[in-house]
Specification:
The chain has 385 residues and is an alpha/beta fold. The protein is built from 15 helices and 8 strands. The termini are far apart. The structure holds 5,6-dihydroxy-NADP (NZQ) and zinc ion (ZN). 5,6-dihydroxy-NADP is lined by residues 40-44, 47, 70-71, 96-100, 102, 138-139, 141-144, 147, 149-151, 179-180, 182-183, 187, 190, 194, 251, 266, 280.
Length: 385
């Protein structure tokens, strides 16, 4: 049966890219806005970004809130919401990576909601309105700077969950690759692999004759593969600007339109961060190969296509494609099993399974028909010590 695309597409985030993009910041924030400057643990103070941003804010009333953690918590973000309300701020400027962007989205929505902020994350409150958000991106990985998703962790219950809220999609994002220079290698590795898996989750399902979407996903995957192959050049401007643009394009929504998606790796991977504090990118390289092996029949045609179009394999079998993906992750020092991260919990597989059950994600279904037995085999392969 033919597959007919049906979608609405609108991505209104204005992107300003390049070494001179900071100069735009002052004009992008609405005149008269009262700004919350939101950032993380202080990397922006060490690399000069804080100074550049505060100069641009000279004409505005602004208040800062720092300490948004990697994998931001509801508890911290609620404190920021209180500041925004108290000071009657009306614009949220995120300066940081995916965690700060996601935190800004939550704050923007929660400020205008009277109930418990977790309702937004759990989906029991559908966000209709949010304060405007702008982003100065300092880490290339998530694509959060121009999408409508955000991931928040409730520390009290160790729950990490994504929500989508169109009104929180950033109005603008400043992407200056020069700011990536201060990132440690570990974050470049994470970013490259996070973006790679984002492209996979929107591509590795089954063929529906989506020439543009497939072609575009393959272009981004090939770019990321090239960045892995040239990882020794990672400190060059050319390498960094390609990472920044690839990671943005991988999750701005452009190649998800009208095609089947399978976000199973991401949906399971959150538990590894919630339980063991593992970086998001690393949770993906741990789980995805095991997931692809378990679902290989459902994904065979697309894995073969990826083997041919992305890895240029002479004999592009699905098995060989999974091996090529693993080799790529290994080449940028990413773990392929929970044990590679130093976690020494002999109960890890059963803990992760229990968390998936508790959060209703032990049988995600989807085109590969993930039931609890399949999920358990994936988790055992990736996490059993
Ligand atoms: O907090 P600071 O001091 O700024 O340090 C950060 C943080 O420790 C540091 N960093 C950021 N920019 C830097 C820098 N260090 C030196 N120089 C710079 N220029 O890097 C560390 C990690 O930052 P974080 O923002 O946590 O990383 P990332 O961008 O990978 O974001 C991860 C979060 O995004 C979520 C993840 O689940 C995780 O919570 N995701 C969000 C998505 C979305 N909204 O679309 C999709 C993703 O799949 C992902 O789930
Ligand atoms: Zn991700």
């Amino acid at each position: 049966m033919s597959h007919l695309f049906e979608f609405s597409y609108h991505n209104p985030t204005q992107i300003h890219f390049g070494p001179n993009s900071f100069a735009k910041l002052g004009e992008l924030i609405p005149a008269g806005a009262k700004v919350l400057l939101l950032y993380g643990g202080g990397s922006i103070k060490r690399n000069g970004v804080y100074d550049q941003v505060t100069q641009a804010l000279a004409g505005f009333a602004w208040v800062e809130f720092s300490g948004v953690e990697a994998n931001p918590t509801l508890e911290t973000l609620n404190r920021a919401v209180a500041v925004v309300r108290e000071q009657k701020l009306d614009f949220i400027l995120a300066v940081g990576g995916g965690s700060v962007c996601d935190g800004a989205k939550f704050i923007a929505a929660a400020t205008l909601y009277d109930g418990d902020g977790w309702d937004i994350v759990s989906g029991s409150h559908l966000v209709q309105a949010a304060l405007p958000v702008g982003v100065v991106l300092t880490l290339a990985a998530t694509g959060s700077e121009s999408n409508a998703g955000a991931v928040v962790t409730r520390a009290a219950t160790q729950q990490k969950k994504v929500f989508f809220a169109e009104p929180t999609r950033p109005r603008f994002a400043i992407l200056n690759p020069e700011v990536l220079a201060s990132l440690p290698d570990r974050q470049l590795e994470n970013g490259l692999v996070d973006a790679f898996v984002h492209a996979c989750e929107q591509y590795l399902t089954y063929p529906v004759g989506a020439l543009v979407q497939d072609g575009y996903a393959e272009a981004v995957l090939r770019a990321l593969k090239t960045l892995a192959e040239t990882f020794d050049q990672r400190r060059s401007s050319e390498w960094l600007q390609n990472l920044m643009w690839s990671a943005n394009q991988a999750l701005c929504g452009i190649f998800a339109v009208g095609v089947p998606l399978d976000w199973a790796t991401h949906r399971m991977a959150v538990e590894l961060t919630a339980l063991y504090g593992i970086d998001h990118g690393r949770t993906l390289s741990i789980l995805q190969p095991a997931l692809l092996r378990e679902t290989i029949e459902a994904k065979r045609a697309k894995l073969e296509q990826m083997g041919r179009q992305v890895f240029g394999l002479a004999e592009p079998s699905a098995e060989a494609c999974i091996e090529a993906i693993e080799a790529l992750y290994r080449s940028v020092n990413m773990p392929l099993h929970l044990r590679d991260t130093g976690v020494a919990d002999t109960q890890a597989a059963s803990r992760v399974m229990q968390a998936l059950r508790d959060h209703g994600n032990a049988a995600l279904g989807g085109h590969a028909g993930l039931d609890e037995a399949k999920t358990e085999r994936i988790i055992t392969a990736a996490c059993a010590l």
